Amino acid sequence: MKILHTSDWHLGQNFMGKSRIEEHKAFLSWLLETIEQKQIELLLVSGDIFDTGTPPNYALELYYNFLKQLSSKKSLKTTIITAGNHDSVSTLKAPKQLLEALNVHVVVNGDEDENIIIPIKEADTTKAIVCAVPFLRDSVIRQSLGGETVSDKEKLANDGIKTYYEKTYKKAKELDSNVPIIAMGHLTTVGSRSSESERDIYIGGTLDIGGDYLASMFDYVALGHLHINQTVGNEHVRYSGSPIPLSFSESKNTQKVNLVTINNSADENVKVEELEVPLTKKLQVIKGDLETIKKELKAIEDKTTWIEVHIKDDNPMFANTEIRELASKLELTILAVKIEKSEKQLRAKELKAISLDELSVQEVFEKRLDLEEIENSEFKEQLSQIFNEVVSNLHEREQI
């Protein structure tokens, strides 16, 4: 059986004021072609379908059009989509029953009311079982511990998630112990590499859950959340990574999806091939003094490149003006300029400066909201939701 593992699409991302719609269109088109060319039977999407809980309408349209086009791919038997920490449960859940008619299974929170054990069948034969584990929110983690109280929140997350996977694996084995068992997940694991565009999703950041632990139960683990394609301690425990670079820290990465070939017998090996996703928009980071940066700007041939500049110069403000003027003449797009200060300039004091260029409008609002120290969490969440809706409406107008 051939499986395609992808994640972290972040549809609707507004990147430093720029839309990623053309890049996402190109990726989804390539994904459809790949499914057909490689005769994929099972598509796994491990969370963060959207960039925010209130995605703009054009992002929803991309998503639903893609799912509709999947139905024309004759080899594809089943598609399984799990929610990530960026995804809204209600947004993904709304069309859930309708999508099941197209053999698209959407798992949003993994609570007791949701079936996460999905047999993959051909005729009357079960070829594999997928344990479709989404991003596990605190309420679900507590359920998995059976009401046990743990004061340390980090330990609670570790124990709850491990217990959840163990119970899930046991249920799958009880259903059929003679077929491969595949798990999905959306979390940060021990030994994995992250980039600047992911956020910590559990108290304490990285969980004490590694690839060897997951590999001791499952034949393949399709992970999401981290944007770098990588293995975690075991060849069969993998992140697919994001299909487009989501920050300048990912500018040198090669974006990929994982093609997994798995046999009907759980005793046989699983083969994984990394497929490179074609790059539609190049991100480039340029560092140095004024003359170095000017030289590198003049050498850029692709005028559609988005650029981040790191200036290390004795007169950074003058250099900033010169660089922006040159970029304008060269018809280049600079999205962010960072001024790197020497240790002497910082006077031996640690300074962590965040440029507004680096933050999304939602992140700026969240930082401002934190300063208010609002104790009512529900009210705080309502404010964030209203703000996201306003931003979404503004983005919609930009697309018209």
TrEMBL record:
Keywords: DNA recombination, DNA replication, Endonuclease, Exonuclease, Hydrolase, Nuclease. One of its GO terms (molecular function) is 3'-5' exonuclease activity. It comes from the Bacteria. Residues 1-228 form the Calcineurin-like phosphoesterase domain. Transmembrane segments: none annotated. GO terms for biological process: DNA recombination; DNA replication. The keyword Nuclease applies. Residues 281-372 form the Nuclease SbcCD subunit D C-terminal domain. InterPro entries: Calcineurin-like_PHP (IPR004843), DNA_Repair-Maintenance_Comp (IPR050535), Metallo-depent_PP-like (IPR029052), Mre11_N (IPR041796), SbcD (IPR004593), SbcD_C (IPR026843). Heterodimer of SbcC and SbcD. Belongs to the SbcD family. SbcCD cleaves DNA hairpin structures. These structures can inhibit DNA replication and are intermediates in certain DNA recombination reactions. The complex acts as a 3'->5' double strand exonuclease that can open hairpins. It also has a 5' single-strand endonuclease activity. This is Nuclease SbcCD subunit D.
